């Protein structure tokens, strides 16, 4: 087998694959953050907690109700989305007129509450979730061995990302949404129920995070703190991509996942910080992010 | 609190309370921890309350300084004063770099950037060899300062109390200086301040460095008080805690951060062994309450009440 940078190619491809899977999670989470920020002006710190709740929902559905992976793929995001509506209606709604920093602080508090509850209920250690039968095993594609479940994660999350992008950028619903981002009063004057749209957008954004949580359940330890470190990376991704662009959020998520995978091969010690270092460099070079306007 | 006389009386009363507290049977290590966090919160308030910038990564400066102080003492056997200075200088230098990057954006982005940058410090402290990894640095000796034996809790207590008073007065002085006035102008209306000819970014960077340096001072002291430096000093939740202390007490008020840190440290101390993880739920709930109904904080609400009564 040939080498690249002094590392065997299968090792590099394996890490790239893992990086791409991580990149898919970054893309889904930063997409949700960008959509929520666009309409609500809130940086949703609780995004990581919703991701964690999505994974715990999957685990709980199997262990308490006997509902398997495919059911959870629909139900878990739905449940988390409903929770999102309740939070938006009861709390975030009151913060629309004031400094957006309060939204960040509120959702930070909410994520502490969620993590505390889960840790008290299910313990601090991780839970394992089986890979669904249909997606077990791996295929040999000649130059490397592909675990089927990871391929499924990539396909599923890219599909969801592209559907979201299509809905927002190419449909009538999406154009109303974008109009409401620019000028909510005017859109409301046209007879569109903007508050309802805001609630549903928040629900959709957090449901996206929960969907990512379901996808991640079989490949990582489902633990109370799984979201809190991820959300910080996603923040950095969002700063790099610029929060205004949907496609920018998706692309920078994928790209940074791959870069992180590469770093794991070349210099493993730096793999945890590479995204943050890139963020610092991008900020010095283009303060508004790679895809940001202005 | 508008009258200087009233304010002086209040400060004197609090100082007396601090001076006699050890004789009232209050556990001094608990009080010292509280004072360290009070210094940390006061430093943070300089940035949030008067500079209008929300840093979500102040634990990086607090923790780095704590580690550097601990390392200087345990590995190089430096004297206490030198070790404190070393920690403070380290966080000062770090804040120049972080500040230079972070002030390129404001508001929400500033918060996210500082959070992401602080995460670098966290991972470096986790993996570097000088920090002791997951165990942290244990057994940091307090040594002596000016011939006073800091190993005695009673001596250390008065030293920390003195530091708190010094930082508090220094911050009061900064805020009332022309520099502080410009800061308030920038906080209220950045564009206008800039059009009046003030170098907005320079002012922002300076206040960021000041705040981070003082936060580092708090971290050094905390390392000496508890004789260890651990990852919990640099972790993101510590950044969250200092925000909570400042908000709960009242951002933009002088005494607020002191009151807020007293409440939070006391809560953690009394609840930690009784309720376990619920302490996180309680802290989160206080956060939510603060944002929804209590935005001025304890001291802020009292000041507003006094103002209403005067009318």
Can you summarize the main beta sheet of chain A?
A: 2 strands, antiparallel
Detail the poorly predicted runs of chain A: none
Globular, elongated, flat, extended or rod-shaped: what is the shape of chain A?
A: globular
Shape of chain B: globular
Write structural notes for this entry.
The complex is a heterodimer of chains A (294) and B (311). Chain A is mainly alpha-helical. Chain A has a single domain, classed as ABC transporter involved in vitamin B12 uptake, BtuC. Chain A is built from eleven helices and four strands; from the N terminus they run ββααααββααααααα. In chain A, strands 1-2 form a two-stranded antiparallel ribbon. In chain A, strands 3-4 form a two-stranded antiparallel ribbon. In chain A, a hairpin with a 4-residue loop joins β3 (138-140) and β4 (145-147). In chain A, α1 packs antiparallel against α8, α1 (9-40) crosses α9 and α9 (226-241) crosses α10 (246-266). The relative contact order of chain A is 0.21. The model of chain A has no long low-confidence stretch (mean pLDDT 88). Chain B has 311 residues and is mostly helical. Chain B has a domain at 26-235. Helix content of chain B is 75%, strand content 1%. Chain B has 13 helices and two strands; from the N terminus they run αααααββαααααααα. Chain B has a two-stranded antiparallel ribbon with strand order 1-2. In chain B, α2 runs antiparallel to α9, α2 (28-50) crosses α10 and α10 runs parallel beside α13 (297-310). The longest helix of chain B is centred in the last third of the chain and has 27 residues, at 200-226.
């Amino acid at each position: 087998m040939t080498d690249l940078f002094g590392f065997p190619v299968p090792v590099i491809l394996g890490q790239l694959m893992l990086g791409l899977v991580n990149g898919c999670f970054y893309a889904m989470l930063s997409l949700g953050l960008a959509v929520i920020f666009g309409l609500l002006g809130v940086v949703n710190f609780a995004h990581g907690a919703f991701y964690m709740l999505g994974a715990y929902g999957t685990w709980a559905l199997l262990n308490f109700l006997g509902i398997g992976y495919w059911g959870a793929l629909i139900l878990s995001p739905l449940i988390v989305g409903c929770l999102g509506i309740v939070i938006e209606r009861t709390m975030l709604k009151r913060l629309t007129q004031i400094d957006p920093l309060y939204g960040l602080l509120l959702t930070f508090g909410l994520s502490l509450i969620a993590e505390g509850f889960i840790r008290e209920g299910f313990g601090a250690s991780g839970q394992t979730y089986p890979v669904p039968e249909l997606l077990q095993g791996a295929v040999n594609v000649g130059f490397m061995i592909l675990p089927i479940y990871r391929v499924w994660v990539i396909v599923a999350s890219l599909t969801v990302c592209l559907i979201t992008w299509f809905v927002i950028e190419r449909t009538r619903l999406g154009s109303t949404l974008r109009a409401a981002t620019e000028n909510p009063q005017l859109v409301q004057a046209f007879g569109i129920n903007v508050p309802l749209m805001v609630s549903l957008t928040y629900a959709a954004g957090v449901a996206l995070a929960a969907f990512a949580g379901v996808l991640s359940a079989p490949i990582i330890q489902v633990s109370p703190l799984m979201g809190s470190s991820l959300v910080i990376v996603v923040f950095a991704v969002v700063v790099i991509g610029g929060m205004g662009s949907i496609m920018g959020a998706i692309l920078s998520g994928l790209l940074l996942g791959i870069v992180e995978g590469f770093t794991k091969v070349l210099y493993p010690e730096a793999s945890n910080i590479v995204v943050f270092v890139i963020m610092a460099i991008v900020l010095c070079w283009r303060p508004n992010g790679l895809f940001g306007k202005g | 609190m508008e009258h200087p006389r009233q304010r002086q009386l209040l400060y004197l009363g609090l100082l007396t309370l601090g001076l006699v507290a050890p004789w009232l049977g209050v556990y001094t290590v608990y009080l010292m921890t509280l004072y360290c966090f009070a210094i940390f919160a006061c430093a943070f308030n300089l940035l949030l309350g008067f500079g209008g910038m929300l840093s979500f990564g102040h634990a990086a400066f607090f923790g780095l300084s704590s580690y550097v102080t601990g390392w200087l003492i345990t590995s190089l056997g430096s004297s206490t004063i030198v070790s404190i200075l070393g920690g403070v200088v380290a966080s000062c230098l770090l804040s120049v770099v972080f500040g230079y990057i972070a002030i390129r954006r404001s508001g929400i982005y500033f918060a996210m950037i500082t959070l992401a940058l602080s995460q670098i410090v966290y991972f470096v402290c986790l993996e570097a060899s000088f920090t002791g990894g997951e165990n942290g640095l244990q057994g940091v000796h307090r040594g002596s300062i000016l011939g006073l034996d800091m190993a005695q809790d009673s001596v250390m207590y008065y030293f920390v109390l003195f530091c708190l008073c010094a930082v508090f007065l220094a911050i009061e002085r900064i805020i009332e200086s022309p520099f502080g006035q410009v800061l308030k102008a920038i906080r209220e209306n950045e564009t206008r301040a800039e059009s009046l000819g003030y170098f907005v970014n320079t002012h922002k960077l300076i206040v960021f460095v000041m705040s981070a340096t003082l936060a580092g001072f708090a971290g050094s002291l905390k390392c000496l008080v508890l004789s260890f430096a651990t990852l919990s000093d640099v972790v993101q939740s510590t950044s969250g805690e200092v925000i909570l202390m400042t908000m709960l007490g009242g951002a933009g008020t002088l005494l607020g951060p002191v009151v807020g840190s007293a409440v939070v440290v006391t809560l953690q101390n009394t609840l930690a062994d009784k309720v376990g993880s619920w302490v996180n739920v309680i802290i989160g709930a206080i956060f939510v309450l603060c944002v929804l109904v209590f935005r001025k904080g304890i001291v802020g609400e009292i000041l507003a009440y006094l103002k209403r009564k005067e009318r």
